[in-house]
Amino acid sequence: MKKSRLSRIANWPERAVATQWRAFPLAADCGMSPRELRRFAWMQHGCSLRDWLKSLRLHWAADALHDGCKSVKAVARDAGYKSPNNFSRDFKRFFGYSPGTLKGGSRNGKHQRRKVN
Length: 117
Fold this sequence. Notes:
mainly alpha
């Protein structure tokens, strides 16, 4: 039962943007306490909830940039970053290239993503 609750998070980009990618609203949305959500994320994904959410945010951002409808700054804001510079730094560390290379569908949709456990 909890697995189906947690699977709600993986398919929730619109709700995540609305909740600013925060653990408390997400836990409530999954019908769990924040502690349960952290523990379950660790058991299912082998990393902290924070790292898993960051991975989901960056994957969502890569898709949004590849669609080409928004600027890097707008995608950074929607992904929960207050600073586009911090977003760009995290994005480059995670994927190995800057977010601007995906803008407008460059890289032909073949951006290499890290596996979300």
